Amino acid sequence: MFLPFKMTLRLFLLGLALLFTFANNAFAKNEQISFHDWTFFKTDRGDLTVCYIASTPIRKVGYFERRGEPYFLVTNIVNDADEVTASSGFIYKSSSDVEVSFGAKKFYLFAYMAISWANDVNEDLDIIKEMQKSDEMTVTGRTRDNKIVHDTYSLIGFSKAYFKLKDECK
């Protein structure tokens, strides 16, 4: 199965960003600044700059067996709009959506394997705007064997981290 180019690029950039976060590379210029529950990351590697902000849940409810660490990212992609990415720490049920909710307001991300994204740039921006207005958000995902998890993220510090992302990574 071949993935569309944009999805392949997204997976590559996400993998590259996570590699820079967790690998200790003396040749890369790394910056990491915490803003309460969100952290800004910037890595310069020659001509490539990778910037994103990340958080992990403050509360996890549901399936925990063999589950990796869930996370939520907002990534600044060169020549592209900012992009939201969520992972619940497991492979999602095929053809299921991942719900991101702010009280009664809900968005649905499309899932591929263990990662989910907004359906288009406008939805990315709508989610980011809602994140700036809210105190918490809940990400709900469904496992391959139909178990449901609810991860609650604090949005304290999100706006400051996001403004840092916009300022540093134009």
Description:
There is one protein chain. The chain is an alpha+beta fold. The chain has one domain (5-168): Immunoglobulin-like (Sandwich), CATH 2.60.40. It has helices at residues 5-22, 121-133, 158-168, and strands spanning 29-35, 38-45, 48-55, 59-62, 71-76, 83-87, 97-102, 105-112, 115-117, 136-142, 148-154. An eleven-stranded antiparallel beta sheet has the order 1-2-3-5-6-9-8-7-10-11-4, with helices on both faces. The longest helix has 18 residues, at 5-22. Residues 19-27 have low confidence and may be disordered.
Quaternary organisation: single chain
- Sheet-strand content, in percent, reads 35-45%
> Percent helix among the residues?
10-25%
Mean pLDDT over all positions: 84
Total beta strands: 11
Distance between the termini: 34 Å
CATH architecture: Sandwich
What is the CATH topology?
Answer: Immunoglobulin-like
Following the backbone from N to C, one meets helices and strands in this order, namely HEEEEEEEEEHEEH
Tell me, what is the CATH class? Mainly Beta
- State the strand order across the main sheet: 1-2-3-5-6-9-8-7-10-11-4
Gyration radius, to the nearest Å? 15 Å
What is the domain tally?
1
How many helices? The count is: 3
Query: Runs with pLDDT <50, length 5+?
Result: 19-27
- Overall geometric form: globular
Largest beta-sheet details: 11 strands, antiparallel
Question: What is the name of the CATH superfamily?
Answer: Invasion associated locus B (IalB) protein
Main structural class: alpha+beta
